[in-house]
Amino acid sequence: MKITRYLYVAAVLTALLVVLGAWRSFPNQAKEANGRESPPPKFEVDPFWPKPLPNNWVTGEVAATCVDSQDHLFIVSRRNLTAKELRVATPSPAIIEFDPAGNVVNSATPPVLPDGLHGCFVDYQDNLWIGGNGDAIVQKYSHDLSTLLLQIGEKGHFDSTDGTAAGTPLNSSHTLLNRPSDIAVDPTNGDVYISDGYGNHRVVVFDHEGNYLRQWGEAATQAEADDGVGGKFLATVHGVNIGQDGLVYVNDRKGDRIQVFEKTGDFVRNIWIQKGVGINNPASIGTAWDMAFSPDRSQTFIYDTDGEQEILWIVGRESGELLAGFGRSGHMAGEFTFLHTVAADSKGNLYTGETIDGRRVQKFKAVGRQP
Fold first, then answer.
1. How many domains, the chain?
2. Which of 116, 245, 356, 114 has its CA nearest to residue 128?
3. What is the mean pLDDT of residues 347-355?
């Protein structure tokens, strides 16, 4: 019993040291409604979340995280285990649902899924949406994962000159996609916003039945991205979210910015995330990967995943200023390897997913004052 207790205490202290040791703060702070300065929230990693997976499961790359109305977390796993792992373990289902305590409550691997699973979203009716950056479809499933309710696009048929992923992207089809990365659903009318961004360079909008409505966006030159030209994207258009303010927030990953638009596609402003980190480095993969809003009514903060520097940034939504950040490269609790995605629950806790060599989900508990 003493050994178990000591191991528990050691794990907790290590987790706290990792997060607090990697905490980065900036002089800028968000404004409260009364005009006083509001410090950004702080987080500590929960090294015991989730609980051990059943059935000898091991996740592959965790390409997406999203939260439902009951604060259950869905993760999307690519199931790409190593040869060694396959000898001793079983690939987890592609979709796993966890309750707030970290227990698996549901899972599924539907018979037809997008290749290169990428992005998930739980809409206002608790339906689950997923996409894939190796394919040309976005799918909508019932909350219990038993029923495919809608598919946008055609599997394996890309919006390109020859219909393949290798063809030149056309960025124009009303029915086809080209390697979509993320999905958001407007709770006011059910419109579906897709960041069609690994092949194409656009945000494309469909109605709740999958009928095309509109689109915006095109490829940017490096100079245009550096100048902050709106509506033009470097590689890749990596994420899309709709705020309580009715604006659309789009992750221009390698452009190091979140571009903000009206729902019509009219450009509003840029939110820069560590601009120029990859300057003179062709291998740079950008700092604006994915984002989530803080759950307060004003959505005071944006949480941005920076897979280039392995940092989760806290940004003032209105000011667009970097306020703080945490994380560093590594495999210990609270560290990141290919930090890819983030989701927030109603209590302000954050859930991150890591791809490539990270291949895990982590929970960061909100501590202290929250907005």
1. 1
2. 114
3. 98
How many CB atoms neighbour CB 59 within 10 A?
26
By CB neighbour count within 10 A (0-12 exposed, 13-18 middle, 19+ buried), where does 357 fall? Answer: exposed
Q: By residue range, what is the domain housing residue 272?
A: 2-367
Q: What is the CATH number of the domain that holds 46?
A: 2.120.10.30
pTM: 0.93
* Residue that has been written with the tokens 């500590």 in this structure: 44
Q: What is the pLDDT of residue 284?
A: 86
Q: CA 207 to CA 54: how far, in whole Å? A: 39
Of 3-7, 237-241, 283-287, the poorest mean pLDDT is in: 3-7
Report whether 62 contacts 92 (CB < 8 A). no
* Confidence label for 2 from pLDDT (cuts 50, 70 and 90): very low
Answer whether 255's CB lies under 8 Å from 225's CB: yes
